[in-house]
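Subject: for your reference before the review

Hello V.,

The reviewers asked for a structural picture of the protein, and I figured it would be easier to keep everything in one thread rather than splitting it across files. Below is the amino acid sequence we used in the manuscript, unchanged from the supplementary table.
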Amino acid sequence: MKTKASLLLLALTSFFFSAAQAQEVRGDAKAGEKKNAMCIGCHGIVGYQASFPQVYHVPMISGQSAKYIASALDSYRKGDRKHPTMRAIAGSLSDQDIADLAAYYADHGHAGAAAPPPAELPAALKDKLAVCVACHGANFSTTPDPANPRLAGQHADYLTLTLKSYQADAGHLVGRSNPTMNAMAKTLSEAELRQVADFLSSLPGELKTVPQSHFR
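And here is what came back from the structure prediction:
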């Protein structure tokens, strides 16, 4: 019995060790540059606008952290994020593909400049935005956890659409399922939602769109 128990324990230890290793896929930025053909048609054109579910600027992803990009793509792949185009693209990617693309865009256009100072929160939104600082950082550009996105300088219309997606949860065609963000977004009125997006967009940050050679 002891032998069987020991073998079972060894098997379980091996299984969990392998699972942990599988989750730690290392990204290769150079490999990601060769895999981004499906990305550059939207994210490699400065000022590019998508038209579904409304007209908005696609997000700037150059300069986001690799951990956040990988998390976002995995959320599309699992269906926690519902946008049809992104779900189709993410669904075609392997774990290694995601890690490589995340590494590429994290390095791509990353300025490496000094972090912006803490943002001065507008009085009318102070209570709402103070909650956001815990995850997105005092300057909304340097996040405590790189799995959380940088928001400073992002397109206001994209941020507006994103907050609306969290208000819709995952039951909507473009909804997003994240308990923390779902709860936070639902406290915002339509006017507050747009004010938050405008404020975040006005802040200095590291996000940018770096044109690909195809579109220069």
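For the response letter, the relevant points are probably these. The longest strand covers residues 49-50. Confidence is low (pLDDT under 50) at residues 5-22.

Happy to draft the paragraph if you're swamped.

O.
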